[in-house]
Design the sequence.
């Protein structure tokens, strides 16, 4: 029982800090995205494409969560985007407290969209609110169309489901209709995008969606 | 500090049960494999191919770890292999205690190789010994060649590194030499196999390796 109790305390403490983060971000009119997926599902690539599509309209910043290394922050910094790298030192997910410290490193007055790339893990990050406005779950075509049912939590807690690496569909048996149907059974309100960072499919739709959402957050007079 | 202390207690308790499992398996001359990877890296497919290649020589059994569902156990049961499904109900890894209970369900006198398929997660399962003889880390080509450095623990604690989905190499930029070099920098004693469940590449080598290892475990007179 101790284990469960401590986990609950950890989650409650996390939730408090997440609400603080959310208030702080809202005060600055920042739209915050939390990207969750398995390792290598293409979080950084989707982010690169989205930033390229929207960087003339909105000011981006990124928080990169990794167990070790800073490769992803370097990739995004190359696009001229302020990027803070969080190394979890073995930790399997980002916490709201880690994000809070990263926010201190950013110039919040100069950000429209803050993208947080969580640790590559389709399981644990789903339990930790970071204070985001929208949560994205990404699933790449090579991972297989059976994943929503096998890893439901990430799909239950997300508002957006991005299918990535759709350029690989001709080489793999992946039933797009099945994965969409099963994801919607788990969470009927998911917004779903089919994308490829290789040929750019779906990126325009994703960018339009984000622009619309940011306008909703800021209201008609922003 | 509470969180860390409890985690250490959990790991110590797990280690004790893992040693019990290891003794029990050794008494029955069972060679036990623990497969760790991201979701969809091909654990079940590699297992299916290995079983098909060795099922006339050795008696297999499987323990399937999943957060929800029993699809993988059903896939393996189709091969005529005794399979026990563990549902972790949200838990991000198998524990030695879960495996202990699963061992009670198996006829240990009729097993040569017991394959445990862990929850799809490249992070958390690496911290939990299950009592296995050999730990396998699998990485699929679509996940990218940068993963050993980003997720070092699974590579540090494994003895075997299986690169899966090599049939997709023509369609992706994945540097096999780089991934092997960086994995060996992290753990120089890794045995490495390049495989494809689609065209069967590397399966024969993997089967030969397992046969050799089982003979080592049982000694020359087995």
Sequence:
């Amino acid at each position: 029982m101790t284990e469960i109790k401590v986990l609950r305390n950890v989650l409650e403490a996390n939730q408090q800090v997440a609400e603080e983060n959310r208030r702080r971000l809202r005060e600055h009119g920042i739209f915050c995205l939390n990207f969750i997926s398995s390792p290598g599902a293409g979080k950084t690539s989707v982010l690169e494409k989205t930033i390229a599509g929207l960087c003339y309209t909105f000011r981006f910043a990124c928080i990169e969560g990794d167990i070790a290394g800073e490769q992803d922050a370097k990739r995004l910094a190359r696009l001229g985007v302020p990027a803070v790298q969080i190394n979890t030192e073995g930790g399997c997910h980002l916490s709201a407290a880690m994000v809070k410290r990263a926010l201190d490193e950013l110039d919040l007055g100069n950000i429209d969209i803050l993208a947080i790339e969580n640790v590559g893990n389709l399981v644990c990050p789903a339990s930790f609110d970071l204070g985001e406005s929208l949560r994205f779950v990404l699933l790449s075509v090579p991972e297989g169309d059976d994943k929503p049912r096998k890893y439901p939590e990430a799909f239950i807690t997300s508002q957006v489901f991005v299918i990535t690496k759709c350029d690989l569909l001709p080489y793999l048996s992946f039933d797009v209709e099945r994965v969409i149907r099963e994801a919607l059974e788990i969470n009927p309100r998911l917004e779903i995008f089919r994308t490829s960072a290789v040929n750019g499919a779906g990126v325009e739709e994703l960018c339009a969606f984000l622009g619309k959402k940011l306008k909703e957050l800021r209201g008609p007079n922003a």
